[in-house]
């Protein structure tokens, strides 16, 4: 008798990958792309090191503290799991002897890649943890670059429009890790934006290293979207994003915009509500000599005049910025210029670092390194002035009505919740603390908007009554 062999299905458990994502929103979007690809190929994720077949660590290498955190995390993953792939900015960093820093510190890692290297990471994963074969999973379309796995809450998302940077600021090593500016095709960016809105995103945060430079590398080439020609340039991108967002009732917020004259063109879009009247402009300093030593983009521009003009064009404008106190050679007079600038430009939200040397940065060679106490003391003085400005501006909002995007609302908001207005970017600015609504029928839902009356200001936050 002939035995008939029926096809047998053996179900192997899907291989599991642990994932740690460190660093800035740009690194987070790299993590999202890798996780999307892993998921599309049938890999599962593990919440613990022990439960994973291998671990990917997406690192940050921007400042020395971030380097330490990344190296410690790799060490922890190696101790608890043993099979580790490293990606991200730290992966592109050299050690003193010119070799790879990660490999030198942790020679047993399976592979090391730089940032924005989804394919190389996937190659390393395939090599060390073969791709599961599943006839169903293999049919899942590759959602890479459209709207895949997000690591942010469902209602907001980062949209990365370019990688790398053409500038060479003397305190920064990002271009040596991420390379020169490469703009994503405008059609891809807009397609991803629409997919994110379709997926429930109510706030889109546009990020890059230099948003105002979008398209410079491709000479503002004309791309296509929705069957229409559209230039690869910030103004056209922002207009189109505003149009798409409008149809979903969503917000668009711009980060990392340098004060070039071309930015003036987007202020009318803010004034008419197409995009949020919020600009994250990393100025770092105000004194022309310090900016020159920093080799900052737009250092020759008259930043104070420009910001005042922006405020005339759009009185609601909120400006967030970051600064460095105690840059090498900074005189007391140059520092005083910075304090005056923050007061006159009425910077709504300011962050400040005391200068700290970053390994491999050109600024380390500059004369006039200031003692740590002076750098720290200037940072503290800066923050005192910045807070004064910020708190006074928040106080002026008391009594007004604002549109709030709800981030958290336990029990449908019966006991209140937490949200943000157009003036607050997630994680870096303040929040709006929502009181329990007076009307019994009123509920608050995460990812939805509510109107609220501002009743008080508390530090960097506002307190509001939803209605
Ligand atoms: S603009 Fe300057 S600080 Fe920003 S990424 Fe480029 S080099 Fe670094």
Provide the fold topology.
Elements: E1 16-21, H1 25-40, E2 44-46, E3 54-59, H2 64-80, E4 84-88, H3 101-105, E5 111-112, H4 118-128, E6 156-160, E7 162-163, H5 174-178, E8 182-183, H6 186-198, E9 203-207, E10 222-225, E11 228-231, H7 234-248, E12 251-254, H8 267-271, E13 278-280, H9 288-294, H10 303-313, E14 318-325, H11 332-345, E15 349-354, H12 372-395, E16 401-408, E17 417-420, E18 432-434, E19 449-458, E20 461-466
Helix pairs in contact: 1-4, 6-7, 11-12
Describe what this molecule looks like in 3D.
This protein is α/β, with parallel strands linked by helices and 467 residues long. The chain has helices spanning 25-40, 64-80, 101-105, 118-128, 174-178, 186-198, 234-248, 267-271, 288-294, 303-313, 332-345, 372-395, and strands at 16-21, 44-46, 54-59, 84-88, 111-112, 156-160, 162-163, 182-183, 203-207, 222-225, 228-231, 251-254, 278-280, 318-325, 349-354, 401-408, 417-420, 432-434, 449-458, 461-466. The strands form six sheets. A five-stranded parallel sheet has the order 2-1-3-4-5, sandwiched between helices. Strand 10 and strand 11 (228-231) form a beta hairpin. The protein is globular, with a radius of gyration of 24 Å. 46% of the residues are buried. The site of iron/sulfur cluster (SF4) has 10 residues, from helix 5.
């Amino acid at each position: 008798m002939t035995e008939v062999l029926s096809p047998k299905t053996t179900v192997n458990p899907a291989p599991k990958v642990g994932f740690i994502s460190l660093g800035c929103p740009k690194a987070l979007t790299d993590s999202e792309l890798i996780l999307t690809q892993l998921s599309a190929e049938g890999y599962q994720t593990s919440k613990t090191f022990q439960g994973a077949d291998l671990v990917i660590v997406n690192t940050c290498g921007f400042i020395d503290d971030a380097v330490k955190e990344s190296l410690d995390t790799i060490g922890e993953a190696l101790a608890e799991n043993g099979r580790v792939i490293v990606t991200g900015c730290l992966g592109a960093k050299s050690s003193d002897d010119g070799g790879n820093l990660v490999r030198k510190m942790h020679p047993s890692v399976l592979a090391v890649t730089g940032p924005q290297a989804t394919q190389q990471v996937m190659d390393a994963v395939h090599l060390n943890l073969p791709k599961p074969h599943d006839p169903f999973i293999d049919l899942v379309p590759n959602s890479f670059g459209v709207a895949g796995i997000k690591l942010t809450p469902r209602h907001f998302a980062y949209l990365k429009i370019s990688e790398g940077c053409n500038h060479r600021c003397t305190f920064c090593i990002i271009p040596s890790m991420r390379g020169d500016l490469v703009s994503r095709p405008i059609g891809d960016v807009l397609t991803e934006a629409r997919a994110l809105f379709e997926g429930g995103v109510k706030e889109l945060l546009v990020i890059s290293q230099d948003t105002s430079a979008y398209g410079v590398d491709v000479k503002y080439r004309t791309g296509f979207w929705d069957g229409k020609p559209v230039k690869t340039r910030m103004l056209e991108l922002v207009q189109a994003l505003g149009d798409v967002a409008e149809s979903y009732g969503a917000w668009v917020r711009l980060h990392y915009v340098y004060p070039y004259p071309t930015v003036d063109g987007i202020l009318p879009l803010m004034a008419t509500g197409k995009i949020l009247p919020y600009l994250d402009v990393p100025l770092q300093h105000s004194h022309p000599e310090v900016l020159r030593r920093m080799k900052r983009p737009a250092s020759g521009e008259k930043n104070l005049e420009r910001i005042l003009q922006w405020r005339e064009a759009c009185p609601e404008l909120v400006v967030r910025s970051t600064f460095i106190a105690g840059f090498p050679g900074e005189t007391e007079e140059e520092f005083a210029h910075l304090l005056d600038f923050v007061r006159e430009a009425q910077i709504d939200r300011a962050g400040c670092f005391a200068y700290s040397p970053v390994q491999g940065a050109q600024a380390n060679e500059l004369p006039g390194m200031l003692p740590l106490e002076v750098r720290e003391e200037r940072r503290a003085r800066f923050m005192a002035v910045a807070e004064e400005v910020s708190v006074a501006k928040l106080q002026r909002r008391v009594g007004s009505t604002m549109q709030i995007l709800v981030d958290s609302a336990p029990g449908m908001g019966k006991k209140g919740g937490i949200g943000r207005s157009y003036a607050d970017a997630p994680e870096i600015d303040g929040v709006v603390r929502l009181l329990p609504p007076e009307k019994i029928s009123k509920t608050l839902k995460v990812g939805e908007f509510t109107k609220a009356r501002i009743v008080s200001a508390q530090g960097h936050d506002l307190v509001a009554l939803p209605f």
